[in-house]
Amino acid sequence: MTLTLNLSPELEQYLLQEANRQELSVEAVALQLLKNSILLKQKQAEAINLLQSWIEEEDGSEQQETGQYLIQALDEDRLSERKLFPHEMKGITW
Fold first, then answer.
1. How many CA atoms lie within 13 A of 83 on its CB side?
2. Within a domain: 17
3. 70 near 51, Cβ under 8 Å?
4. Neighbour count for residue 15 (Cβ, 10 Å)
5. Are 22 and 29 in contact (CB under 8 A)?
6. I want to staple 7 with a disulfide (CB 3.0 to 4.6 A). Which of 11, 18, 52, 55 is the partner?
7. Which residue range(s) make up the domain with 73?
8. Looking at the 3D structure of the chain, how many domains does it have?
9. Widest pairwise Cα distance in the chain
10. Where does the pLDDT of residue 84 fall: very low under 50, low under 70, confident under 90, or very high at 90 and above?
């Protein structure tokens, strides 16, 4: 598939710098970033689905406790301050 993108000057500069740093073409770097982003979203969705299935199992209180612990641990063990499971999105995205 061929895709044409109109990039902001900042994004174009980032891609050029990253391509130079990795000694790859701009196209290869853009494809790599897109692929990594999609894979990350898939892994996050799988983790959320697994946690939700644990929460919904018959032994509700134990599973909810374990699920809450995992959510808390995943949110605390991040390089970013942005939470992976923000409380205001509970019931909407997870």
1. 13
2. yes
3. yes
4. 18
5. yes
6. 11
7. 9-89
8. 1
9. 54
10. confident
